């Protein structure tokens, strides 16, 4: 007798986990709680996806952070509303500060309980706002969504996952208990999430020409490769470009290991005045152009802000979403979208 199971739809929770698996994630960190248990049940139904339980939510957040740094894909953690999500927020905040891709999934009370402002454990006071905790994480996330509408939920999942990748920052997905099993079209999984940033092509071309023009007028350029090169998935293209240019190249404490240190053009780790002898002078005194790529100018990454400021005319800044060549700034030019065509253009010039 044939099965009558409807394969044209799937539970919303299954969609969420399948989407996350499509990003290359294999391990889900977190702590079970009464508001996420049914959500967690669907992890085992996704091939290649495993649950990794943690002793507490803060540990889960740091584990997700470390997983992302090592694997290159997002780290994912699951907590329960209120006590769980708040316990994890220090780890998420650290990931935000250092541009680490983390997806924090929070199981919450059902939408009926939310609308009724019912007094339920994990809530505050006699007339509780069940969504008050989501306001607390506003400053440590790039995007968030509530999966409380069956029609819009799949698109919201895709939007938030995309934002996580484009900005390399934490995001939050809140899943009410009564929407875990809601059916949605299974065919939506056939179209992968678009993870490519939308770069202004004209601005990108102008920036590339400006960089090449600036390089052609310099006799002692230096390149600094920093953490966002890795975070924003530009390391492979960057290393190919470095091989082509073969210019003196430095990394930073946060960017260490992005550039193979056995390369003949690798000159050391630049950390302002606490660098090894000769490194700071090579960058600050002996160069006539410094190209700072994927920079994170925090105190711990710059020797306590002990770098000697460079004249703007002697610098090129390649940020997460803009390029500045001297005094000219090109907006909406994303790092990975700039590095790849710059490599192709430089090859053509050679």
Automatic annotation (TrEMBL):
One of its GO terms (cellular component) is cytosol. Residues 209-339 form the Thiamine pyrophosphate enzyme central domain. Signal peptide: none annotated. Residues 12-120 form the Thiamine pyrophosphate enzyme N-terminal TPP-binding domain. The keyword Phosphoprotein does not apply. Keywords: Decarboxylase, Lyase, Magnesium, Metal-binding, Thiamine pyrophosphate. CDD domains: TPP_PYR_PDC_IPDC_like. One of its GO terms (molecular function) is thiamine pyrophosphate binding. The keyword Phosphoprotein does not apply. Its cofactor is thiamine diphosphate. GO terms for biological process: aromatic amino acid family catabolic process to alcohol via Ehrlich pathway. PANTHER family: PYRUVATE DECARBOXYLASE (PTHR43452), TRANSAMINATED AMINO ACID DECARBOXYLASE (PTHR43452:SF3). Belongs to the TPP enzyme family. This is Pyruvate decarboxylase. It comes from Aspergillus mulundensis.
């Amino acid at each position: 007798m044939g099965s009558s199971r409807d394969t044209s739809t799937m539970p919303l929770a299954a969609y969420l986990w399948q989407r996350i698996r499509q990003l290359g994630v294999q391990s889900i960190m977190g702590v079970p709680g009464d508001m996420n248990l049914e959500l967690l049940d669907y992890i085992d139904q996704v091939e290649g996806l495993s649950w990794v339980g943690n002793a507490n939510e803060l540990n889960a957040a740091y584990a997700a952070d470390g997983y992302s740094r090592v694997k290159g894909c997002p780290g994912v953690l699951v907590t329960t509303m209120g006590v769980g999500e708040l316990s994890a927020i220090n780890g998420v905040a650290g990931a935000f500060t250092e541009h680490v891709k983390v997806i924090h999934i929070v199981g919450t009370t059902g939408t009926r309980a939310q609308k009724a402002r019912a007094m339920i454990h994990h809530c505050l006071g006699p007339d509780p706002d069940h969504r008050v905790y989501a306001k607390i994480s506003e400053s440590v996330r790039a995007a968030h969504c509530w999966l409380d509408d069956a029609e819009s939920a799949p698109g919201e999942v895709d939007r938030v996952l995309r934002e996580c990748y484009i900005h390399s920052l934490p995001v939050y997905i809140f899943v009410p208990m009564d929407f875990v099993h809601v059916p949605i079209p299974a065919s939506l999984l056939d179209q992968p999430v678009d993870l490519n940033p939308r770069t202004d092509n004209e601005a990108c071309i102008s920036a590339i020409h400006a960089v090449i023009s600036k390089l052609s007028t310099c006799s002692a350029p230096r390149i600094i490769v920093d953490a966002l090169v890795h975070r924003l998935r530009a390391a492979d293209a960057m290393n190919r470009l470095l091989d082509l240019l073969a210019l003196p190249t430095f990394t930073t404490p946060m960017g260490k290991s992005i550039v193979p240190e056995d390369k003949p053009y690798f000159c050391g780790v630049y950390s302002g005045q606490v660098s090894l002898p000769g490194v700071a002078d090579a960058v600050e005194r002996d160069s006539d152009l410094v190209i700072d790529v994927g920079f994170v100018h925090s105190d711990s990454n710059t020797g306590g802000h002990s770098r000697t400021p460079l004249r703007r005319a002697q610098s090129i800044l390649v940020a997460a979403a803009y390029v500045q060549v001297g005094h000219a700034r090109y907006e909406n030019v994303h790092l990975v979208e700039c590095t790849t065509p710059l490599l192709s253009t430089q090859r053509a010039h050679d």
